[in-house]
Specification:
Elements (H helix, E strand, L loop, with lengths): L6 E6 L9 H8 L9 E7 L2 H7 L6 E7 L9 E6 L17 H11 L6 E7 L17 H23 L17 E3 L34
Helix pairs in contact: 1-4, 2-3
GO molecular function, one term: aspartic-type endopeptidase activity
Keywords: Aspartyl protease, Hydrolase, Protease
Family: Belongs to the peptidase A31 family.
Length: about 220
């Protein structure tokens, strides 16, 4: 590998399940405002196996763009740092969905080396069907309004991460500028009032190596 930082931005989600389409919609919006050429930006949709193998391609950092219920106001953006997988979610990807925890566990199982650092740019959904029988294409108004903010956030985050893959970027809006939460994926159960603890920024392990998990009370 050369000394140049390798960064992946991956949209994930099912376009037929309401606000789960947030990730693909953000990647579509990036076509009009592309990221720097050295960044690979791709919509993976629900192709979990494809994403798992891509995570093994030698990236320093991967930013997954996804809808994730964390108990915030619909449309709120959060930057979450994923814990290294512990094997409990290992298994094949779902046929009609994308479970980031399962994808990370699968990538760890398939590869021999360390995974990249994984951040999740998450949007609080308003409408997130849990079954493929509840087909409801189209984003809710709050999540639709967050798409352009997510594009802005990526244009803020990416230069920071290219300069230093271990950096702890902040989101731009006052209500979205807390340091990344240290949290295992999948996220907490919907309905929680707020994240119970916000972990302070911590030094990242050497580029390309996973950081040991930190407990969340």
């Amino acid at each position: 590998m050369t000394g140049r930082t390798r960064l992946l931005v991956a949209g994930v989600g099912n376009i037929f399940l309401g606000d789960d389409a947030f990730g693909p919609e953000v990647l579509r919006a990036l076509a009009a405002r592309p990221l720097p050429r050295e960044v690979r930006a791709r919509d993976f949709g629900i192709r979990g196996m494809d994403l798992a193998y891509t995570l093994l391609d030698g990236y320093d950092t991967a930013v997954l763009v996804d809808a994730a219920p964390r108990g915030h106001r619909p449309g709120t953006l959060s930057l979450i740092e994923a814990e290294p997988p512990d094997g409990t979610h290992a298994g094949p990807p779902e046929a009609h969905g994308m479970d980031p925890a399962r994808v990370l566990a699968l990538a760890a199982h398939l590869g021999e080396g360390p995974l990249p650092r994984v951040l999740v740019l998450a949007c609080e959904p308003e409408r997130l069907p849990r079954s493929e029988d509840d087909i409801a294409p189209g984003l809710s108004a709050p999540v639709r309004g967050a798409v352009d903010r997510a594009v802005e956030a990526l244009h803020t985050l990416v230069p920071v991460l290219l300069a230093d893959p271990a950096a702890t970027p902040l989101l731009g809006r006052p209500d979205e500028s807390a340091p990344p939460h240290t949290a295992a994926l999948p996220p907490p159960e919907p309905g929680a009032a707020q994240d119970r603890r916000v972990a302070p920024p911590a030094a990242h392990a050497p580029t390309g190596r996973a950081r040991p998990p930190r407990a969340v009370s």
